[in-house]
Amino acid sequence: MTAAPEKGNGGGAFPGRRAETPDRGLCVRGVCKSFDRTPVLTNVSLQVAPGEFVCVLGPSGCGKTTLLRVVAGLETPDSGSVLIGGGDVTRIPTAGRGVGIVFQSYALFPNLTALQNVAFGLRRRETGASSIRQKALELLDLVGLAESAQKYPGQLSGGQQQRVALARALAPEPSILLLDEPLSALDAKVRQSLRKEIRRLQRRLGITAVMVTHDQEEALTMSDRMVVMHKGRLTQFASPEEIYRLPSTRFVADFIGAMNFLEGWRAEGAIARYGGIDIRLPAPLGADGSVVTLAIRPEDVQIGRDLFPDENAFVATVAEMEFRGAGYYLTLKALTALKALTDGGKGGMRLEALLSPLRASQLKIGAGDCVKVRLPRERLICFAEDGTAVGFAGGGPE
């Protein structure tokens, strides 16, 4: 059984409370789940620390929502276990798990006011109408909606409705807050504002939170750690910075952010060779002659005129130059010996590079110009033929 949720501290529900909470972490152990004999989750295990905010990310059909539903008690795993606060809740119904759930669709009662919707989550724990009303008002104030307490959901914007849903989920003082793509139905500016608000509240309350999202920017900006799932398996579980800079597989590298891939290079020690071109790697890769894929982020590709050293540098033309607000995306077509690397010389190897507006202005370049391109070895990532990372990024060994 899970530990019983704490009572409010005197004046109300837990607005302002952070310390003196028991272990409210989450542990998922070896969970498997199939539907109609089709595996959806395969041996998924993860440990979420008390007070941690974890985002679960992955393509459609990867199992991320099913994982959240297993934690919530809305699905029963075929095998494995779920522990909350140290207690095994695998066979305990949702109502007995001490979880609060926020859905994408808000799931508010249309015939109840905002105040009544929040109060609904308190009826199991509180007795006395005045106590319920006071705590519901405190929670609405916590999410910035005290003045809208008497409005019905139809009178509120999408962002306001989701704030009410958040307040209702927090009302019973859950051990774990579960969020199932709560911002996906909102427009971009409202999403940005509300994700900051959710993160602020989560930190203030010290509550453990797990959020499923398909939005990479949400996951990168909101989470302490991210889970990346693929085909029902947990592929990588690490900080946003580590996942972005040190992806454990080619899938993760390709799925998170933009990435250039240079296929089919043969490694000899710390050198990758293809045709007449040598690219120095962050570290030796082991057996000589092994085939590797090199990868580098567009923002790590260096562009200049004649200022770079020769290591990992070559000449390219700017095939395309596209302004995207925060910077310019350049499509580069390599010349000379690199031309035959990928397509027999028909079109040459192509790379994408990202330049800030200031850097683009300094270089005074445009489509059709010839530039020098450099691939810093400390920013290269290397993948073996099976897709696993075998190199280093972000300051790996020299």
Brief characterization of the structure:
This protein is an alpha+beta fold and about 400 residues long. The protein has helices at about 65-70, 115-120, 130-140, 160-170, 190-205, 215-220, 240-245, 250-255, 355-365; strands spanning about 25-35, 40-50, 55, 80-85, 85-90, 100, 175-180, 210-215, 225-230, 235-240, 260-270, 270-275, 275-280, 290-295, 300-305, 315-325, 330-335, 350-355, 370-375, 380-385.
What does this structure look like?
The chain is an alpha+beta fold and 398 residues long. The chain is built from 9 helices and 20 strands. It has helices at residues 64-72, 114-120, 129-142, 158-170, 188-205, 216-222, 240-245, 250-255, 357-363; strands at 26-35, 38-48, 53-57, 79-84, 87-88, 99-102, 176-180, 208-213, 225-230, 233-238, 260-268, 271-274, 277-280, 290-296, 302-304, 313-323, 328-334, 350-355, 370-374, 381-383. A 6-stranded mixed sheet has the order 6-7-8-3-9-10, sandwiched between helices. The protein has a 5-stranded antiparallel sheet with strand order 13-12-11-14-20, with no helix packed on it. A hairpin with a 2-residue loop joins strand 4 and strand 5 (87-88). Helix 2 (114-120) packs across helix 3. The longest helix has 18 residues, at 188-205. The N and C termini lie far apart (51 Å).
